Automatic annotation (TrEMBL):
One of its GO terms (molecular function) is DNA-binding transcription factor activity. InterPro entries: Homeodomain-like_sf, HTH-type_TetR-like_transc_reg, HTH_TetR, Tet_transcr_reg_TetR-rel_C_sf. Keywords: DNA-binding, Transcription, Transcription regulation. Residues 12-71 form the HTH tetR-type domain. The keyword Transcription applies. This is TetR/AcrR family transcriptional regulator. Pfam families: TetR_N. It comes from the Bacteria. PROSITE patterns: HTH_TETR_2. Residues 34-53 bind DNA.
C-alpha cells in the first residue's frame, strides 16, 4: 500500500471520527460546544479539525446532511410497510425516536437555514409522505382530516421528550401510543378545529425561515 493511499485512509478515518464525536458532543453541550473539545475527544490536533472543517458552519452542514441521509435510509422500511397504517406507525415511531436521540437537531436546522436559505432537502419528502397519508386514509385506518404536516408536528412533539435526557427515553412510548391512538379513524370523530399548514410553510417555520 502506498503512502498516499495510507494518508487518504487516515484522513477518511479522522473525518468519520470527528463527525461521530461531534454528534456526541452536540448532544451533550449543543452545537456551539468548543471545537477544541471536539479535537480532544476525537484524539486529534486542533489543526486536523480545521483541515476537515474550516468553519463551524462547514461542520454543522455536514452533520445536517448526514441527518437527512439517515431519514432517507428509513424511507424504504416506512414506504414498504404492508399497510398504510403500518407506514404511519413506522413514520411516527422511527422519526420520533431519532429526534429524541438528537436534541440538537432543531437548532441545527435553524443554523443551516440561516447560512444557506436555499438548501431545503426536507421538501423532497413531501410527496412520499402525502402518499403514505392517502394510502392509510383509503384503507380507512387514518382519520380523514390528518395531513402529512400533522404527522411532522407530532414527530417534533414526541422528539422533544429527548430534552429530558436518556432517563426518560424508556417511557416515551407511552406518549407514542397515545398519539397513534388519536390518529386512528373512528365513527363519530369530531373534526379537527383548524386547517393544516402547507408543507412548505411548516418546513420554513421549523427552520426559522419566513
Amino acid at each position: 500500500m502506498s503512502s498516499a493511499t495510507s494518508t487518504r485512509r487516515d484522513a477518511r478515518r479522522n473525518h468519520e471520527r470527528l463527525l461521530t464525536e461531534a454528534k456526541a458532543l452536540f448532544t451533550e453541550r449543543g452545537i456551539d460546544a468548543p471545537l477544541d473539545e471536539l479535537a480532544t475527544r476525537a484524539g486529534v490536533g486542533a489543526g486536523t479539525v480545521y483541515r476537515h472543517f474550516p468553519t463551524r458552519d462547514a461542520l454543522l452542514r455536514e452533520v445536517y446532511d448526514q441527518a437527512i441521509d439517515m431519514f432517507q435510509e428509513l424511507a424504504p422500511e416506512i414506504l414498504g410497510a404492508p399497510t398504510g397504517w403500518r407506514s404511519i406507525e413506522l413514520f411516527v415511531e422511527r422519526l420520533s425516536e431519532w429526534v429524541a436521540a438528537t436534541p440538537y437537531l432543531p437548532e441545527l436546522m435553524r443554523r443551516v437555514a440561516e447560512g444557506d436559505p436555499g438548501h431545503r432537502p426536507g421538501l423532497e419528502f413531501e410527496a412520499a409522505l402525502d402518499g403514505v397519508v392517502e394510502r392509510a386514509k383509503a384503507e380507512g385506518s387514518l382519520r380523514p382530516d390528518v395531513t402529512g404536516v400533522d404527522l411532522n408536528v407530532l414527530v417534533n412533539m414526541l422528539g422533544s421528550l429527548g430534552r429530558f435526557g436518556g432517563d426518560y427515553l424508556p417511557f416515551w412510548r407511552r406518549q407514542l401510543a397515545i398519539v397513534l391512538d388519536g390518529l386512528r379513524a373512528r365513527p363519530d370523530l369530531e373534526p379537527l378545529p383548524a386547517p393544516s399548514q402547507s408543507f412548505a410553510d411548516f418546513h420554513d417555520m421549523a427552520h426559522h425561515q419566513r
